Give the backbone structure.
Amino acid sequence: MKRAVRVLIIEGSAVTRRILSAILAADRELEVVAAVAGVPDAREAMARLRPDVITLDVAVLTRRGLASLEGLIRASRTPVVLVSPPTRKARELTMLALELGAVDVVQMPSRELVRRMPDVVSQMLDAVKAAARARLGPVTRTEPDASADGRGGAAERVIAVGASIGGTEAIRQLLMAMPPDAPGLVIVQHMPERFTRAFAEHCDGSCPVRVQEAKDGDRLGPGHAFIAPGNRHMRVHRDGQSYRVALESTPPVNGHRPSIDVLFTSTAAAAGENAVGVILTGMGADGARGLSAMKRAGARTLAQDEASCVVFGMPREAIALGAVDHVLPLSELGRAALELSGPGAGGVR
């Protein structure tokens, strides 16, 4: 019988500690080894109990305390799932914690917890089990690529990107490699509602391109990246010589809304050979069929390699389906996407 995933809970509220402990302990695949009130308490428990996954209440963090979190992640190499209330301060700290190496975030509602409990249970279990499969590489700090020359910045070119667990930092690094006149980018990151706007704002403050949470009808253009809002699908459609995005609340696809397959399939139909598709780290198979549709339509397709992925699930599924032209480390994907989106683009050198 497979060993249960050992989970350490860091949660400031005693009531919520009991709730999370009960949620996780009820699943046979999980074992709650301890529940503590803060990061300092977690250090002793980490050394003694060696958990496989940590869940962390974002409300216990401060900006000064982020250094302690980074030290914990670096020292233990244990995947951290953030549990965040839907406040602005919590969203800002969540973005910083993801940049430091946390792998996923689950939103804990501040009100109507009982009514929302089925959703919270499902999200928590999925996130913890996915995190148990995560492989953490070294935490890096990326700077904008000053050598990028902006080839392929025409408005009719599109780069479509999909990611899930571990994807926030992968997306940020990809965007850091883009010049200010890069082709228009459309991005789906599996993330709770409201957190996608904070993620877009976080990227916008550090990346050469302008990054925004998408609004219905936004027009793609050089130097702009649009991130699908949490809980809304995003499609690309043709508008003359350029493209616009459409948002919708149709049912989830592959268990996700937004779904990467929805984005990729619509990009295939709208842009065909004028598009590049990029599948990044993530659990499951969302995006594989859509990337295959892009390739059949003439688009170039890229996947993040296993060594640089936090979870290799989505790239593996796309590769197995024959949907991927090139498999590359994260550090090379931005340059490759830029090259392949240029006029008369050939292979990756």
User: Anything to note?
Assistant: Residues 113-131 form the longest helix (19 residues). The chain has eleven helices and 14 strands. The longest strand covers residues 30-36. The CA atoms of residues 17 and 245 lie 41 Å apart.
